[in-house]
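Question (not urgent): is this output format expected?
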Amino acid sequence: MTDIWNNIKDVIKERVPGHCFRMWIDPIEFLHHKENSFVIGCPNHFFRKRVMENYANLIEKELQTAGGKNCRLQIEITQKSAKSRKPKKKNEISLPSPQMSLPRMNIYQSSGRLLRKEFTFDRFVVGKSNDFAYSASLSLASGRGKNQNSLYLLSRTGMGKSHLSQAIGHHIIDHFPNENVFYVTAEDFTNEMVHSFRTNTIEQFKEKYRRYCDVLLLEDVHFLTGKDRTQVELALALDYLLNANKKIIFTSCYLPSDIPKLNEQLGSRLSAGIISGIEPPDYRTRIRILRKKMEEKGCCIPKSVAEYLAGELSENVRQLESGLISVSAKASLIGAPVDIRLAESIVRNIAKQSRMITVDLIKTVVSEHYQISVKEMVSKSRKKNIVRPRQIAIYLARKYTDQPLQTIGRSFNRYHGTIIHSISVMEKAIKSDRAVKKQMEFLCEKIESSEKTE
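Got this back:
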């Protein structure tokens, strides 16, 4: 019967998407056969419910084909922890489960972030743009990739890299409850290290990440740029984790080699594993994302409106979700029908919001990055370390705002001609110098990220 089940799995593998097979079919085990029932095992109740809803009919049909007669499918829960547990002897006292104990609480209780409950593998919509990233993430989380311990998820903001990173965390917590999963951003890590120096607890900080971390989910590693002390400590921690075969997942908008002011040691650690990019979803995937979001949020919009939103909101998943929520909310609040006209008004507002970056915001981000004051930037100084940041800020002000050149000039205490010259200089530099281009892309990401948190 085990051979029959393996043959059925081979047939199903050809009939369902690869990521669905790896997630929901491959882990299923044959248990036993009794009378007219074919009994298979799933690891938990949620898994069983998912298989019953989506794959039970397909499995039963293949069972009938393989066995030549009707055979009832039965799915039971088989937890590995229960299998390995020895039967309890008479008068033996049951000890608490390992998951109930909270060891070393004083070491890492105050750090890290909570995983978002909706960021799981089953809620991630897979398409051509993210199939490899999904497969690599699932493989690492399930432990199937024997030589895979490090994964670098690369994409622009809003493409799903945080979703996949946290899905790995959820999967490991569910299937390997004794492993310690630490989820932090690069900024969290930096702040925590600075705090440990100030409070003379740096040794506890080091021991926490080097000894008590089994899975490290580190978001937005590009924000470590220029933080030399943090980079050195992180590189050492990664050495300990990699040597101990611990799992490390990074997310970023940039390749390690393109992150400015990143030391060689840390760059080498970040590049040690699989680097997987995530591209913007295509139209068909955007339609499926909308359907998934409608199912999760319990809302429904006409097919024509969904197709319009999928066609117009193509930048990232967050923008698409924002469009769906806004359409449903506006229709509900004003009692209007959900139609193309209403959707058009929402799309116009979303496009307008994406342009709400001000000249002052740009000056602040650029001045902080180059470690000069805004006052120095708009001064009459012609020092090289002032002139270049000023030219960059002027170029970005022209790129991101609708302000006339004269208004931009007044903001920087410069004449109209100087503004044109600065923009021209930066346009030529971006075309001719790859380093300048990468630096500009990095600053654009910081500006866009800052705008979202305003």
